[in-house]
Write a structure and sequence with these properties.
Elements (H helix, E strand, L loop, with lengths): L4 H4 L3 H22 L1 H9 L21 H6 L15 E5 L7 E5 L1 H17 L7 E4 L7 H13 L2 E3 L6 H11 L3 E4 L1 H13 L11 E5 L5 H11 L2 E8 L4 E7 L7 E3 L4 E6 L13 E7 L10 E7 L1 E2 L11 E2 L4 E2 L4 E3 L2 E3 L1 H8 L5 E12 L2 E10 L1 H4 L3 H19 L4 E5 L14 E3 L4
Parallel strand pairs: 3-4, 3-5, 5-6, 6-7, 18-21, 19-20
Antiparallel strand pairs: 1-2, 7-8, 8-9, 9-14, 10-11, 11-12, 12-15, 13-14, 16-17, 18-19
Bound molecules: 5'-O-[hydroxy(phenylacetyl)phosphoryl]adenosine.
The site of 5'-O-[hydroxy(phenylacetyl)phosphoryl]adenosine (DLL) has 23 residues, from helix 6, strand 7, strand 8 and strand 12.
């Protein structure tokens, strides 16, 4: 079923005409309202009226996460704060979050995209949606919530956590659609099992899972254990939140990008050259309808691929493949975006610590765990055990405060972390997903 037949199944030619018109308008708007863009376009010798075809998009400079950080918190907004009705944020590279804003019309756009998303994943007005994405600064909870209401479905705004209570509510309220991260879906499955509740007795038909990488194997496991069809959803705060792309229940094969709002490109992350369809590379998005916080050619760092072939569901929007990795070192630990450099900045504030550290990410049961191995100097290492323990604890506290993610810190003896000739190996990701 298709929420917005007119747009989602629009012939490519008509779609491209709309894209061009919207692109021209957003380029003119950012040029006249955001000093950052004006400077960048001027440096490239570009004026908004140089954009005469969709191919001209390539002439525009890229926008990087660092640019957002440099303009923290609201410097990239194109409207006065008076017109901003919502603010969300996600973690950034320095401990400062990436801040995004929405006008009332942006919230309407986002709600429509999430209504489309839910329907692509099998939801209708008659469904009850158990929304276990986190509510708060994270875009997941509220993004799904508004989409569910727009669709006219009933939404249970349960957010994440207190899993036993979630299972009880699933049993008593009989929701039919589950929305949460794939790792949390599996955890709910395990807790239900421990409580003696079989998902076959529940009423779920489909789940829409994303916000972190997962695999086809994980899909199979979720579908079997939770007795539902599992769809992949992709999005990022900088572009809108969830609602950038989603799989359709008919094919479950690639995520349709809502191209009437976002223009995707795939580039080679090193040379920045634009690559043809069906070639893997880094996803780049330009938002063409957002008002408060549009972005031009945003480098997502997510590695994917674009497939233009028609889909049996009837949507004409291009599909992106499952995200296969990142072109930077960002990790997603229990849903929180973490950069090794953030941890580095926390640990380097301590006296007696050497700039050698390693992050070990593992999965215990369904939960990601993060261990930070930190090398200390001789003086600290030969100190009393209780002093070392106190230092470990304060490091853990600071990491939790700065990044919002719990880590176990282990101080290790001088020279024990392996040195390499090339790039330091900072991360050991032992999770098998
Ligand atoms: O994770 C938005 C979202 C909420 C998406 C709910 C889907 C569902 P951020 O916190 O800004 O936004 O994190 C964005 O998460 O650049 C990817 O690296 C990763 N990511 C998101 N969805 C997927 C997915 C939300 N389906 C970052 N597969 C992105 C793999 C994903 N990675």
């Amino acid at each position: 079923m298709i929420y917005n037949e007119e747009y989602e199944t629009m012939p490519r030619e008509a779609l491209e005409a709309i894209q061009l018109r919207r692109l021209q308008s957003v380029v003119a708007r950012v040029y006249s309202t955001v000093p950052f863009y004006q400077k960048r376009f001027d440096e490239a010798g570009l004026k908004p009226d140089h954009i005469r075809s969709l191919d001209d998009l390539r002439k525009l400079p890229f926008t990087y996460k660092d640019n957002l950080r440099d303009n923290y918190p609201f410097g990239m907004f194109t409207v006065p704060m008076d017109n901003v009705v919502r603010i969300h944020a996600s973690s950034g590279t320095t401990g400062k979050p990436t801040v995004v804003g929405y006008t009332a019309r942006d919230i309407q756009t986002w709600s429509e995209l999430m209504a489309r998303t839910l329907m692509a994943g099998g939801a209708t007005k008659g469904d009850m949606i158990h929304n276990a994405y986190g509510y708060g600064l994270f875009t997941g909870g509220l993004g799904f919530h508004y989409g569910a209401e727009k669709l006219g479905a009933s939404v249970i705004p349960i957010s994440g956590g207190n899993t036993k209570r979630q299972v009880m509510i699933m049993k008593d309220f009989a929701p039919t659609i589950l929305t949460c991260t794939p790792s949390y879906a599996l955890m709910i499955g395990e807790v239900a099992e421990e409580m003696g509740i079989n998902f076959r007795e529940l009423h779920f038909k489909a789940g829409i899972f994303g916000a972190e990488p997962w695999s086809e194997q994980m899909r199979e496991e979720i579908e079997k254990k939770l007795n539902l069809k599992a769809m992949d959803i992709y999005g990022l705060s900088e572009i809108i939140g969830p609602g950038v792309s989603v799989e359709c229940i008919e094919a479950q094969n690639g995520l349709h990008i809502f191209e009437d709002h976002f223009i995707p490109e795939i580039i080679d992350p090193d040379t920045e050259e634009v690559l043809p369809y069906n070639t893997p590379g880094e996803l780049v998005f330009t938002t063409i309808t957002k008002e408060a916080f549009p972005v031009i050619r945003y480098r997502t760092r997510d590695i994917s691929i674009l497939h233009p072939e028609p889909c049996r569901c009837g949507r004409t929007m291009v599909r992106m493949g499952r995200v296969r990795g990142r072109s930077d070192d960002m990790l997603i630990i229990r849903g929180v975006n973490v950069f090794p450099s953030q941890i580095e900045s926390v640990i380097m504030e301590f006296d007696g610590i050497e700039p050698h550290y390693q992050l070990v990410v593992e999965r215990e049961g369904r939960l990601d765990t993060l261990t930070v191995m930190v090398e200390v100097n001789e003086r600290i290492f030969s100190d009393e055990v209780k002093n070392m323990q106190a230092m470990e604890q304060s490091l853990e506290k600071n990491i939790k405060e700065m990044l919002g993610v719990a880590a176990q810190v282990k101080l290790v003896e001088p020279k024990s972390i392996q040195r390499t000739e090339g790039k330091a190996v900072r991360v050991m990701d032992k999770r098998e997903i």
